[in-house]
Amino acid sequence: MKKVIVLMLTFSLCHSGPGNDDDICPFGGSASCCNICPTNMEQRITSLETRLENAEKEVQELRRLTQGTPRVAFSAALPGSGNTGPFTTATPLTYKKVFSNTGNCYNPSTGIFTATVSGMYFFRFSMFNNMTPAPNSVVSLMKNSERLTSVWDTAATDIHDSGSNAVVISLKVGDNVYVQLEPNRAVYDDGMHYNTFSGFLLFPM
Ligand SMILES: [Ca+2]
């Protein structure tokens, strides 16, 4: 309706006669007159409508990214006190003390985070071992069956007993991330929660 009204007003101001635009242009010149004649005005309105539609789509996409998408974040620690391990095979550490688990992507029964949203993620883990004597500690952050990064600690009466590591990685729906205790290794905690596993979604992709 607005488009029709604009076109009617424009046409009433700029009714050109055949072959002589300069005589009837209300703005005193053929060039300026042509800029507001119905054909050009309609093209301008169509262009503005297209730009408005595109802007509305961008706003909707931004709203979807900032408000409408799932929120994923978790943080957990090894429970209780004492050794975990050694085991003869590589074993996911089960961080049963859950601090947060928005989105419920982390399973404290298995220690495995499973992506329900494709996107870029941040993960961090820490490890502690002050056992003497005992196996050295080696734990690795895993994406499915791929080892991403690891931390080592030598069991002895040394003063270096903890370490941490982190990654930023892209995940697809169904990808698993977990911290793996390597075979014949062990970690220790005394209830102070030195051993943690945390992660969150940075942005969907
Ligand atoms: Ca040590």
From TrEMBL:
Residues 1-16 form the signal peptide. The keyword Coiled coil applies. Residues 38-65 form a coiled coil. GO terms for cellular component: extracellular region. Keywords: Coiled coil, Secreted, Signal. Gene3D superfamilies: 2.60.120.40. Residues 67-205 form the C1q domain. It is found in: Secreted. This is Complement C1q-like protein 2. It comes from Xiphophorus maculatus.
